[in-house]
Amino acid sequence: MDADRFDETTLDDAESRFQAALLANDVAALDGFLHDDVRFTGPDGSTIDKAEDMAAHRAGALVLATVAELKREVQVIDGVGITRALLHLVGTAGDDKIDLTLAYTRTWVPSPAGWVVAAAHGSPAPPAHN
């Protein structure tokens, strides 16, 4: 593994670019950030794979007007990247308006294209964080 290419600085940059792609609903960029075998666990406990996630983005099922980061932690442990971000999200999910704060944990792994997300989990943030 190229330690200079897969360090906390490049992981921090990948997280920033990932959040920007979410805000822009940039389907091509999001696709490039996701490992083919990625799994997402949502706030309701359901799990989806990459195909389901990409289909939802293509259909515009989640449209974000705001992705405001309130806090971020970045770690690289034995070549595996971990980001934890507290995000305030405003937009629409289907026909419903959303205005909520979620705590996300993403597990990133090195790939020839750079860091990619292998697993992610979003949970409602405790009221003390809002």
TrEMBL record:
SUPFAM superfamilies: NTF2-like. Residues 13-116 form the DUF4440 domain. This is Nuclear transport factor 2 family protein. It comes from the Bacteria. InterPro entries: DUF4440, NTF2-like_dom_sf.
